[in-house]
Amino acid sequence: MWTKLIWVLCFGVLLLSPRMPAIAADADYAINPGDILQITVWKEDGLDKEILVLPDGTISFPLVGTLTARGKTVAQLQQEIKTKLATDIPDASVAVVVKNANGNVVDVIGQVNKPGEINTGHRVTVMQALSIAGGVTPYAATGKIKILRHDAEGKETAIKVPYDEIMKGESLDQDVVLVPGDVVVVPEASLF
Asked: In whole angstroms, how far apart are CA 42 and each of 25, 49, 52, 59, 71?
């Protein structure tokens, strides 16, 4: 019995580790730079490749060339590869799998117990990210927590997080889902 309990606890810790890459299970997961994809064309041995999504969001695949993968779902990328292969391989059966969701990274900085980069591999809200970072310290200005986010044009915006209200069970709709590249900032409370 104890062996089984220890195995479950250890396996659970491995699954919940914030630094460990995870496979994205969501059908609407958007591919990010740093993700590792497994692309397979059925019955075409030379077209079974493990591919890293480059920092600019592109991938290169034989007979297809360079494609933008960033922001696309697995189904969208699969369809695009199938369409581009149609001239060389009619009715190609293409499979795209996210092997490692290394690009789904957010940062938590400031007054948290474990600041740093969080590689989640799945959707995470700001409250979940703060939990993964070990929670806020006693010196945190919880009323001033913000999310810094860059949009597609590179413009940075700050999203205020009503931490105290969410902790009371209020304003739960403002527990924002983080997107790759977000930075959660937990400032220090002033003494005066």
From this structure: 22, 12, 20, 19, 25
Q: Indicate if 88 and 129 belong to the same structural domain.
A: no
- Per-residue tokens: 108: 């938590």
From residue 183, alpha-carbon distances to 11, 87, 121, 179 in Å are: 29, 44, 16, 9
CA distances from 45 to 24, 40, 62, 95 (A): 25, 8, 12, 13
Does one domain contain both 94 and 118? no
**Boundary-marking domain end, from 69, 100, 131:** 100
- Tell me the pTM: 0.67
The residue range of the domain holding 124 is 105-186
Which CATH number belongs to the domain containing residue 149 in this structure?
3.10.560.10
Cα–Cα distance for residue pair 40/45, rounded to 1 Å: 8
Per residue in 64-90, pLDDT (tens digit) is: 999 999 989 999 999 999 999 999 898
